[in-house]
Amino acid sequence: MNSPYSLRPAEPRDVPAIAGLIAELAEFEELSHMLQLTPEKLYPHLFGPKPVVEALVGELDGELVAFALYFTNFSTFLAKPGLYLEDLYVRPAHRRSGLGKLLLTRLAQIAVERDYGRFEWSVLDWNEDAIRFYENMGASVLPEWRICRLTGEALAAYRKV
């Protein structure tokens, strides 16, 4: 597909722009009140001595307009690692341009190149446009699965004393 956008792995210089895009994503999802991210907090997780996430960025004329943040998980049933997409965000002016599809396609290619057994992500149930988009790309939305989460005080309650 011929596109004016370019994709590349994130570089250290991209961290402030990625943090800004994450803030936009939080606003879009009406979760800004939960956002604690700063470039300084994100940097070591992408580029520190023990990185735990990777990112792809989408650019147009040198400006970052999209990102995908992902990490490796593991399937005990498949006995293989998988790729988990934590967040994908495309600025509103660039939606429906093919950029989201480019990002998802590249991530699927990375999963295949690494011989991973799965490529997974979550989608908010109210985001019907995204659900249709993912289904059109061949993804299955698994209605019988629910996300369980411990965070904040509930997680801190497990701290050893």
Description of the structure:
This protein is an alpha+beta fold and 161 residues long. 32% of the residues lie in helices and 24% in strands. The chain contains five helices and five strands. The chain has helices at 15-28, 39-47, 99-113, 128-136, 152-156; strands at residues 6-9, 54-60, 63-75, 80-90, 118-121. It has a five-stranded mixed sheet. Helix 1 crosses helix 2. The chain starts with 5 loop residues before the first strand and ends in a 5-residue tail after the last helix.
Number of helices: 5
Tell me about the largest β-sheet. Answer: 5 strands, mixed
| Secondary-structure content class | alpha+beta
Q: How many DSSP-defined strands?
A: 5
- The portion of residues forming beta strands comes to 15-25%
Brief summary:
This protein is α+β, with helices and mostly antiparallel strands and 161 residues long. The protein has helices spanning 15-28, 39-47, 99-113, 128-136, 152-156; strands spanning 6-9, 54-60, 63-75, 80-90, 118-121.
Topology:
Elements: E1 6-9, H1 15-28, H2 39-47, E2 54-60, E3 63-75, E4 80-90, H3 99-113, E5 118-121, H4 128-136, H5 152-156
Parallel strand pairs: 4-5
Antiparallel strand pairs: 1-2, 2-3, 3-4
Helix pairs in contact: 1-2
